[in-house]
Amino acid sequence: MEDPLAEYKPFGTEAWELFNLTNDPAERKNLAAENPGKVKAMIALWESYVRENNVILPSRSVFETMGRPAASTCSRRCGLPAVDL
Q1: CA nearest 1: which of 74, 78, 69?
Q2: pTM, entire model
């Protein structure tokens, strides 16, 4: 089975971002390029949380689900069993 999280990109810039909220509460300086190991570790924690809690990821756009029932789209993207409606 293909990994549904492998292709997932965050909304906005579609790149994972890292901020020091203590020193930069307005999130103006993205530290991801300076700390690639920290970003990788945080993505691994996020992926683990998504899998353990059966998080249903949002569709990127309305066009991804046009013509398909929402349940089958979520099932396919999240690795859950398909449900016929």
Answers
A1: 78
A2: 0.59
